[in-house]
Structure prediction request, 97 residues.
Amino acid sequence: MSGMEPLIHSVTTTVAQDVRGLVHATQLALPGLLEKDPPNWRWHLPLGFVTLVAAGMLLIAAGGVQWRVQEQKQGARYRRTQMHKTKIRPQPAQPPL
Prediction:
């Protein structure tokens, strides 16, 4: 067991130092994280909101590209038919001639 004692002592020392560091870190009064605007920021919108809007626009653009690719693969473009624009009224049967 004497071969393991240096390893155990090393691990114990390291863990003790880490715990002391964590306890000391909790006692420090660190300023809260603040969202800072980039230089020359003229819109006065939160950067997180602008990032979210940009991500949404990228998703919409990717959806449009995917739609075009699907159109090209299927060959025909999607078009609305005029089938139901006018209502067809039932006509009485014509007598045979």
Remarks:
- The mean pLDDT is 77.
- Residues 44-73 form one domain.
